[in-house]
Design brief:
The complex is a heterodimer of chains A (419) and B (397). Chain A is α+β, with helices and mostly antiparallel strands and 419 residues long. Chain A has 13 helices and ten strands. With 397 residues, chain B is an all-alpha fold. The chains are: A alpha+beta (419), B mainly alpha (397). Chains A and B meet through helix 1, helix 4, helix 5, helix 6 and helix 7 of A and helix 1, helix 5, helix 9, helix 10 and helix 11 of B.
């Protein structure tokens, strides 16, 4: 009895979870494996379209002979690179149509025209013409004729399914792609974006944790950048920072803080001298990181605030009795209480920033020294149309990410052990 | 010690005043006033003197009179003698000074003798500074987005600093950008597509997620722990890695440029979060209710529809709103999968619009307002649900 109960429970559980598991498997897990497959292939964007035999049907009436009609099929192979084998063709006609000139490749039975065209090489084109006569001399409805679409079929190799593999893509990614520069840019972007958003998160959470008028309103406002669509925000920032008529540059010029406009998103380096030391700052990258911090600190804020509100008040009261200063209270009570949240946040944000595509893409498109790995996936795969290369770059991302996650869970496991 | 504290207090409060006045000056500049200098030296001197005078006078004059006197002196020098600016600007300065002197009125000479008094003051002022600074930094881009959408191309080029909106003009002229994007750029259609995609994603996600979350929360089966940990790991997986294989597969299946394709991908990417958020809530529902139902021979379908769903309306609405927002804001997949202007979502349409360098920026901003407003509205209106959802799922990229 118990056994059957447990069995039904199992069955129910599988039925309940199956749809979700299947969908997630086919759209998320399967593509990750497909990515590995593609990354070992030489595939370009144009290769992935399956070659199709196509026919455009043109109906022409023949002058002086109302019972006759000429039908022209413009046949072609849609692919520029692949051949199609065993192309077959079918079209239907009204019940009073007799064919006048039958092509040797075709047969006409029961008002159905069937043809076997054999193999079509890439770029193949042919004008195929048939003439019909109506056997009862009635008027021909051209529109109706046109509305019947011919059916074509053929076999072709799917370049994705053959078993030619190569290491070329990975060689190119690692040795010809300014890989070190790519990695460094991604690392700067990820690291400083993460640290910045957490620092601002701590500051704002500490701030909202005090009592002041309009606190709930402030909390909503602080989350605006996080919930608003990235497209809108990125374009607003672009306008704000525009060197020619952007508000920021105009303001700085107006108050004579700068003499010439700064192209914050289009300039790779800016020379800065502090205390006599000259160094080059990566300007566009810094701006993109600023945007990143601006957009994602609300998440850190929300997490840290939730943690702050859970700290027992007694701790602070005891500190007051001991005569601790506000800074001492912050460093000795608040900070130790939020380190766990911060370490988790750091990991989450690090992983997500590492894969962030939209923000950089919309702001700079990866120009002026802001090319990160995810941007490179897009550039290789869609701008240069080398799907194999794009896949290889994303495999590199996955590998780096897995390494990172491995250490993350190790660290997390340790933490659990300690408690 | 007292002298040091007095000077520190005056400096801290003065820097706060400089910040307040600077923000006001920037805002005034953006209303078309020509102010070319922050006059930091003057504010520094006056702020410092006011702080010192405030401590020196102490309680001898009622604080309200003190505030009024200080503010008037400041306005007189800063506004009238130095800059000759319109009256509303000076009223603003007066109010800022009034606010400022009120803020400092709680600090007294005697209080400064206390231990850590400067740190307390610094903390207080940093909080105030933070509130204003972050409000400004966050709201300014939104404000700019809104204002720019009401301007004309010429006005924007002539004076990029003029943020004033001319309300006296005809409604048709004021909302011209909006009329244009709806008429010439088919934004009405894109709103419909975005809504269908987002609402569709919400419905399908809930249909799949509720049973799965129930199973994970309540039933014992082989692979349960594996399933619940893989939910989180899958959630961490980057969308950019999925893009190329999905693109190739969707191209071959003819799913690109279709709403169905987007729905499938959005549902799959939001499912892990939805399951994670829901199972957490389902676990908190008392088990006894279901045990009674099982005795009544209710099937699992009955348990879910008659017990679980009615009890978890808050969690379900939170997930629904959350998924809606993810789907509405989504950009990467819509960029990859849609290249036919007839099937664009709002985000993709705005990006497409910006691809043409000739597109006037006010159209772009009007489009941005159109895509942002619904989300902000939902967020502000349902904030309570959403915030709990955000912290529970900690989601989105």
């Amino acid at each position: 009895m118990n056994d059957t109960l447990a069995n039904t429970e199992k069955k129910t559980a599988y039925i309940l979870t199956l749809p979700a598991v299947l969908l997630v498997f086919s759209i998320i897990l399967f593509p990750i494996f497909a990515n590995v497959w593609i990354s070992f292939k030489e595939v370009e964007l144009k290769d992935i379209r399956i070659p199709e035999p196509r026919a455009k049907k043109i109906v022409k009436s023949i002058s002086d002979e109302p019972s006759k009609i000429k039908i022209l099929y413009k046949l072609r192979n849609s692919s520029l690179i692949q051949e199609i084998r065993d192309v077959s063709f079918q079209d239907n006609f009204p019940k009073n149509f007799e064919i006048e000139n039958l092509d040797p490749r075709c047969s006409y039975k029961k008002y159905n025209l069937k043809c076997e065209f054999g193999n079509w090489p890439a770029k193949y084109k042919e004008n195929f013409q048939v003439i019909f006569v109506t056997n009862d001399g009635s008027k021909i409805d051209k529109k109706n004729l046109k509305s019947i679409k011919p059916k074509l079929d053929g076999k072709s190799d799917n370049i994705l399914l053959n078993t030619n593999f190569t290491f070329k893509n990975f060689k190119k990614v690692l040795f010809e792609n300014e890989f070190i520069d790519l990695l460094l840019t991604t690392f700067y972007y990820t690291f400083f974006g993460t640290v910045g958003s957490i620092v601002f998160g701590i500051l704002t959470a500490q701030m909202v944790n005090q009592k002041f008028y309009g606190r709930t309103f402030m909390r909503s406002v602080l989350l605006f950048p996080y919930v608003a669509p990235v497209v809108a925000l990125a374009y607003t920032w672009e306008l704000l920072l525009d060197p020619n008529s952007g508000t920021l540059n105009s303001l700085l010029l107006n108050y004579q803080i700068i003499e010439t406009p700064i192209n914050l998103l289009g300039q790779k380096y800016i020379e800065i001298s502090i205390l006599g030391f000259d160094f080059k700052l990566r300007l566009a990258l810094t701006t993109v990181i600023m945007f990143e911090i601006w957009r994602y600190f609300p998440l850190a804020f929300l997490f840290i605030l939730a943690r702050l509100q859970a700290i027992p008040k007694e701790l602070y009261e005891a500190a007051d009795v001991d005569g601790a200063s506000p800074f001492q209270k912050f460093f000795n009570i608040t900070l130790p209480q939020i380190t766990a949240v911060i370490s988790i946040l750091f990991m989450i944000r690090f992983i997500w920033n590492f894969n962030k595509f939209e923000d950089v893409f919309l702001l700079t498109g990866g120009a002026s020294g802001t090319r990160t790995l995810p941007i490179n996936v897009y550039q290789q795969g869609f701008a240069i149309s080398d799907i194999g290369m794009g896949s290889a770059v994303s495999i590199v991302i996955v590998v780096l990410l897995l390494m990172f996650m491995f250490f993350y869970f190790k660290l997390l496991g340790k933490r659990v052990d300690e408690n | 010690m007292r002298i040091k504290n007095t000077i520190l207090f005056s400096l801290i409060s003065t820097f706060f005043l400089i910040f307040l006045i600077s923000i006001w000056k920037i805002l005034a500049t953006l209303q078309g006033l020509s102010i070319n200098s922050f006059n930091i030296e003057i504010i520094l001197i006056f702020g410092f003197l006011i702080s010192l005078a405030h401590l020196g006078i102490g309680d001898r004059i009622k604080s309200i009179y003190k505030s009024i006197i200080f503010s008037s002196i400041f306005v007189f020098f800063d506004g009238y003698l130095i800059q000759k600016l319109p009256i509303w600007y000076n009223v603003g300065v007066f109010l800022i000074l009034y606010f400022f002197t009120n803020k400092i009125s709680k600090y007294t000479f005697i209080g400064l003798k206390e231990e850590h008094s400067t740190q307390v003051i610094l903390f207080d002022f940093l909080t105030l500074f933070g509130i204003l600074f972050f409000s400004f930094v966050i709201l300014f881009p939104f404000y700019m987005m809104l204002v720019t959408s009401f301007k004309t191309q010429i006005a924007l080029l002539v004076n990029p600093l003029d943020f004033s909106i001319n309300f006296s003009q005809d409604i048709k002229d004021l909302f011209k950008s909006y009329f244009v994007i709806f008429k010439s750029y088919k934004f009405g259609k894109y709103i419909v597509i975005s809504t269908i995609v987002s609402v569709g994603t919400v419905i399908i996600t809930l249909l799949f997620a509720i049973p799965a979350a129930y199973a994970v929360a309540r039933l014992n089966f082989f692979g349960k722990t594996f399933l619940s940990t893989s939910i989180l790991i899958i959630y961490m997986f980057p969308a950019i890695v999925l893009v190329i294989p999905l693109y190739t597969i969707f191209s071959q299946l003819g799913l690109r440029n279709s709403i169905e394709g987007l729905l499938i991908v959005y549902t799959a990417t939001t499912l892990p979060v939805a399951i994670y958020m829901l199972q957490g809530y389902f676990k908190s529902i008392p088990k006894e209710l279901e045990e009674a139902a099982i005795l009544d021979k209710l099937s699992w379908f009955g348990i879910i529809t008659k017990i679980i769903i009615p009890l978890s309306i808050p969690a379900i609405s939170s997930v629904a709103l959350y998924v809606f927002m993810i789907a509405w804001n989504e950009f990467l997949f819509s960029l990859m999968f849609l290249d036919n202007p007839n099937s664009f979502t709002l985000s993709r349409a705005i990006q497409y619009l910006s691809g043409d360098a000739e597109t006037p920026r006010q159209y772009l901003m009007a489009g941005s307002v159109v895509v942002t407003l619904p989300v902000l509205f939902i967020f502000v209106y349902f904030e309570k649900y959403l915030v709990s959802g955000l912290t529970a799922g900690s989601v989105k990229g």
